[in-house]
């Protein structure tokens, strides 16, 4: 069974997400455990202090290293530790598949306020990943997004074994974006479903999907084209 944990000062956010989608499927099917670890349980005092002002001055508070270190030890000292950070490597489907295949536990350390003491990054964090060139209020949303993408690759989590592979960045157009999708009704506000999708000709449908995948990738993410 896979084991994941998210260290955060907002455990209720993680607990709420555990009731949805692949998080719920993974846990209910006994394929993974997902723990929300409250950083304040390892606070420096009875007031729940987990942060302090930055040395050298500056805005915001910084998460102290001691509570994070103790929180990591409480779950698994052998865990792969990931820290969501705008300064990290860009997360992709490739990383999701890689971490889904790992047997070791995985822990996400979520920053808040001004950030995390660099000594935790230097001594405890194995990987820093970013969702893109923008700033969020904390690491919880990126951690949940990354873990969501990981869980989709665990066999048995999704209803259809090929679902994860056929999504965008899967084997569509050389790892490109997914083709357009259609469902009932056949006509909506004057727009009809492409005839080829109603033809029953699987060869023509596959060719159409590959072409549309290529067109969408060229338009929206040309950086993905090899």
What does this 3D model show about the protein?
It contains nine helices and ten strands. It is α/β, with parallel strands linked by helices. It folds into two domains: 2-151, Alpha/beta knot; 168-224, Trp Operon Repressor, Chain A, CATH 1.10.1270. The longest helix has 19 residues, at 202-220. The model has no long low-confidence stretch (mean pLDDT 93).
In terms of topology, how is this protein built?
Layout: E1 2-8, H1 11-17, H2 21-28, E2 32-38, E3 51-52, E4 62-63, H3 65-75, E5 80-90, H4 93-100, E6 106-109, E7 115-116, H5 118-123, E8 127-130, H6 140-151, H7 163-166, E9 187-188, E10 191-192, H8 195-198, H9 202-220
Parallel strand pairs: 1-2, 1-6, 4-7, 5-6, 5-8
Antiparallel strand pairs: 3-4, 9-10
Helix pairs in contact: 4-6
CATH-level-4 superfamily name of the largest domain:
SPOUT methyltransferase, trefoil knot domain
Cα separation of the termini: 36 Å
Strand content: 15-25%
Mean pLDDT: 93
- Please give the oligomerization state of what you see: single chain
Number of helices, counting only DSSP H or I runs of 4 residues or more: 9
Number of domains: 2
Descriptive keywords:
single chain, 226 residues, Alpha/beta knot, Trp Operon Repressor, Chain A, five-stranded parallel beta sheet, three-stranded mixed beta sheet, 10 strands
Brief sketch in words of this structure:
The protein has helices at residues 11-17, 21-28, 65-75, 93-100, 118-123, 140-151, 163-166, 195-198, 202-220, and strands at 2-8, 32-38, 51-52, 62-63, 80-90, 106-109, 115-116, 127-130, 187-188, 191-192. The protein is of the alpha/beta class and 226 residues long. The strands form 3 sheets. The protein has a 5-stranded parallel beta sheet with strand order 2-1-6-5-8, with helices on both faces.
